[in-house]
Design brief:
alpha+beta, four-stranded antiparallel beta sheet, globular, about 100 residues
């Protein structure tokens, strides 16, 4: 079975960086214990501090879909509404 890789690129609005960053960090611990989560890592661009990237690895697309529906994800989306400039998600398969 091939894992599903998710790359989520988030650019926050000016003046919202620290707020959104702290909210994204709160997602890490509860996500890492979710069924099907293999990896869940948050990165910040060194040249554009408003640009963040989540690198995620899931055992299946179904596990990722359940993650997206979890309470902590819904709460995050509600809290940061209006603070995100752009959000792009790519579903990817690792080539070996």
């Amino acid at each position: 079975m091939t894992n599903l890789t998710i790359v989520a690129s988030i650019i926050v609005k000016q003046g919202q960086r620290d707020f959104v960053k702290s909210e994204m960090i709160k997602l890490i611990d509860p996500t890492l214990v979710e069924a099907g989560c293999v990896e869940y890592r948050l990165h910040q661009n060194n040249n554009n501090l408003e640009h963040f990237l989540f690198y995620e690895c899931w055992q299946s697309r179904e596990a990722w879909q359940k993650h997206r529906e979890n309470a902590h994800m819904s709460e995050y989306r509600a809290v940061v509404e209006g603070a995100i400039e752009s959000f792009d998600v790519s579903e990817m398969t690792e080539l070996k």
